[in-house]
Write a structure and sequence with these properties.
This protein has one domain. 78% of the residues lie in helices and 0% in strands. It has helices spanning 5-31, 44-76. The radius of gyration is 17 Å and the shape is elongated.
Length: 77
């Protein structure tokens, strides 16, 4: 199985983009209540996007790993 270089680049940028958004929301939730000891992860404004982007990130990582294994296994044959 071979993939075009443009498709691989698009997939990797998608994974990076979703990861950046996830980390940004996570840090905003963590650092948002900094003067106190409050952490805002359980607030719906942070919890729902974290669930959505976290699930998307896990799925994209799994797809990327499976595609990498499939293309590596095919190229060695």
């Amino acid at each position: 199985m071979t993939l075009a270089n443009k498709k691989i680049t698009t997939l990797l940028y998608s994974v990076e983009g979703v990861g950046i958004v996830f980390v940004a929301i996570f840090l905003a939730a963590y650092l948002g209540g900094l003067p106190t000891t409050a952490v805002l992860h359980s607030e719906p404004a942070f919890k729902i996007p974290l669930i959505i982007f976290g699930a998307a990130l896990v799925i994209l990582i799994l797809v990327t790993t499976i595609l990498a294994a499939a293309t590596k296994g095919h190229s060695n044959s």
